[in-house]
Every structure is written in C-alpha cells, then in structure tokens.
Amino acid sequence: MSPSKLLPALLAAALMAAPAPAQGLEPLPSLYALRVGSAETVSSGTVPYAVLLIEEGKLIAVGQDLPVEAGIPIYDLPGATLTPGLVSCRSRIGLFARGGNGISPELEVRAEAEKSSFDYSELLEHGVTTLVLYPPGAGVIGQALAIRPIQGSFAERLLANPAYLAMTCGASKQAKKYVRDAFGLVDKYMEQVAKEREKASKKSGAKAKPEKEESKEESKSQEGGEDKSEGSKKEAEKKDDFVPPVPDPRTLPLVKLLAGDLRAMVGIRKAADYLHFKDAVVGREFPYHLQIDLRDELDLFYIAEQMGKAGERIVVDARIVQHPGTRRERNLPAELHRAGVKVAFAPVQDSIEGHRAWREEVATLVRYGLDRQAALRGMTLEAAEASGLAHRLGSLEAGKDANIVVWDGDPLAPTAHILAVILEGRLVFGEL
Known about the structure:
Layout: H1 8-17, E1 31-40, E2 46-48, E3 50-55, E4 58-64, E5 74-84, E6 86-91, E7 100-103, H2 110-113, E8 128-133, E9 137-143, E10 145-147, H3 154-157, E11 158-160, E12 165-168, H4 173-208, H5 216-219, H6 229-238, H7 252-259, E13 264-268, H8 271-280, E14 288-292, H9 304-309, E15 313-317, E16 321-322, E17 329-330, H10 332-338, E18 342-346, H11 352-367, H12 372-379, H13 381-386, E19 404-407, E20 418-423, E21 426-430
Parallel strand pairs: 1-5, 6-8, 7-9, 12-13, 13-14, 14-15, 15-18
Antiparallel strand pairs: 1-2, 1-3, 3-4, 5-19, 8-10, 9-12, 10-11, 16-17, 19-20, 20-21
C-alpha cells in the first residue's frame, strides 16, 4: 500500500539515507510513520488508532491518533494490528556441538555460531526478529548470544554477545556442587583483590611517611584563615590509584554476573531442582531467570506461589502438561502467571517449523486460561528481559528498536496472518 501525502522530494532524499532492505523488498525512508487499526505495545496495553513514528531504525513516538508533521511519509494500514517483533530467547537452530558437564563460564557459543552457514531468515516470516543461541550442557555451561535472523555476514547478524550465562541446577549433589564451585572462583578472586589492595596500601603508606607534613599554620588561607589540610585529606581519601587484577577468563563472566553486568539463565526441571538452586546461591545476589522444559510430568504446581513471591521469571515451552501421576491436563504457564511468576515462552519444537507453530501454541494456552496480555508479553518483552535485551527490544515504545510485526487482525486469532515484518526500521518481509 502506497504511503499517503508523500512529498516526492522528501521521499527521494530519505531513500538515499535509508538502510538497505532485504533482497527484493522496497526500501523504507529513514523517517516515516505507520498508522494502523491498533498496536499491542505490550508495555502499556493496546492502543487503538495507533500512530508510530520511526526514525533511523528507532521508535521515536507511539500513541493514539498522534499528529504527523507535513512531509513525513505515512503508511496507512487501517485494518492491521502491530506487535513487537517476537524474541526467541533459547535456541540451538543451526548449531550441532554437544555440551559437557562442569564449569566453563568462559565458553562462548560464538565460535560455533560464526561458522554456521544456516539461513535464519525464514524465521522473519513467522515474526521472529531476535534469536538467542545458547551452549548446551550441564553445570555452568557458557555464554549465549543474540542474533538478527537475516541473511548476511555473522557481524551483520550479531546483536549482542553475551546475552546471558547458561547454567543448570538439578537435585543431585553434583549439580549443586557445580554451581557452588563456580562462585567459589569469584571468592578466590576477591581474596586476591583484597591482598593486592592491602599490599598497595602498605606500599603507598611507606612512601608517604618520610614526606614532610605541612603545618596547619602554613595550610591556612591568608584571607579567611581556613584550614585546608582537612580538604586535602578528603581529596586524598577520594583518590584511589589501586587497580584490581584482571580476573582470568574463567572467572570474568562470574564476576560480571555478580556485579549485575550479566545475567544467568538457569535450567531446572522439578521443584527440588529449584530448591537446590536457591540453596546453592544463598547469600548471593545476581540477575537470573529460570528455564523449564515442560516435557515430563512436573511438580512445579506445588511451589508456584513461592516462585511468585520471589518474583521469578521463567522461560517455558508453550504447552499443556499433565499433572504428576495422573492424566489430568493442566495449564502450568497460566497457573504460574496467576501466582505472580513472570512467564516467557519458547516454541515447543526448536526448529523453523517449531517457530511457525509458536504463536498458535501460545494462543492455545490463552484459550485454556492464560491471560492474553501475558501471552503477548511472553513472546516479546519477558523473553527480551530473559535475554538481557529489554532496553532495546520487546515492546513498542519510544527509544527502542523499531522491530515490528504487522498482522491482518488479532495476532492470537487462529486465522491471523503476517502482512509485514520490520527489523530496526527496515522492511524485511512482506509489504506495507
């Protein structure tokens, strides 16, 4: 659909500055507006008669019936609904290396991802604009990364590295030991830092001792007679020339984790796994999210309230599960959400076809009791949070990347289809 009220001269100039679209698609201007029937912002609910202003790949304004300055190209899509691009936060598509057991936080999935020749661009047809690839294994496994599912070089696809630190914790003593021993590396490093700091302090004190101290009389100002010595002391206290030693590659990711500069994705399967993990990290504060495979009968129903009170965020595959020891079906994601747990979704099958069915799987959970907004958040903002990317992705709000899926109706309706996908302001699938 052609944009309305388009000034030819402005469009020509804008096209020259616009990023290149995917092969075979019309380029979009560097500055343009979308005017649609509604927008599922995720962060602030549904906005009817929504207008989104996009500039240089970023959303700069989102609102109802926003005025658009004359001369800015407008794409009118009155029957369409917009959502943020879907974020698949846990995938092994295109990767084949096997994992191991142990403590390897320094391991990066990049080494394998960079060599992969897999074409991820088909994911765009299913609304997926971000894919997070993780290393497999048990224990403290290694670092995941996020990519744009586009054709091109690895550098063009790479979005963030690392996205999170992958680890698992089971109910066995060995599983707990992996986690505890990993953080023991940080404890040893902090002891080293303390010793080095003490040495540096003693050395600095020894140098300062022979120096002649200025008398208070000499340090007083002629004008006001103020004692400058106190100010000098304070300045000296503020100055800290000590530079801590750089952690070794194995310890560095864990130091970043405890500093809040990295987050963890922790795989568990049962209630006992969760309790063992909490026991293994007792006394330590760091950002983490839980990942749960819903392939077996689970007993997590029994600790849903406990997890909700703790403010946990979990990543689960979108499926109905059986109650332990029975044939009774239960909507675990819905029950966890009602208990206060933040829920992010992954496809049941980690494949291109699995991502094709992903939206329908989540829609099924809605039909069986999951809150609709929680469903949309689970494929977008919660998944972005779990990936450490919520500052850029996962919702339609000013300042974030213009990753947008254009639907021909309700995105959770069985008959809904994707009309177009926009990635960082570029049209990468369909047409407007």
